[in-house]
Amino acid sequence: SVVKNDVTKEDFAKKYNIEYSEKYTYVGIIGRFDHVKGHEIFIRGAAEALKKNENLRFILAGEGPLKGDLENLAKELGISEKVHFIGFLDNIYSFINFIDINYFMWFLYKE
After folding, report:
1. What single-letter DSSP state applies at residue 22?
2. d(CA 108, CA 110)
3. Which pTM does this prediction carry?
4. Secondary structure of residue 66 in the 3-state scheme
5. 61 burial via Cβ count (<10 Å: 0-12, 13-18, 19+)
6. What digits encode the pLDDT tens for the residues 11-39?
């Protein structure tokens, strides 16, 4: 497959050390790692989804103060091998074209 700017899915996966296979469904989220962005919900949802389908892979693009906490949560849930933190993106289009499902979390945050 070829994505925008002639970056293949295979090349994108290699650049970010993600195992690529057409058998996998890639679910992605882009955003600053901050509580209001819903990344914890994304990771907890990933753990639940993986109970039903082991061929899912989850990609988190971004940076922020909660990165360590989110990585630890993935480890605690036993899914860290299927969750990839790829950092800041220099080409957002290649990410969007790589993933199969783009996750959006829209809600009003209240403490």
Report:
1. T
2. 6
3. 0.88
4. coil
5. buried
6. 999 999 999 999 999 999 999 998 878 89
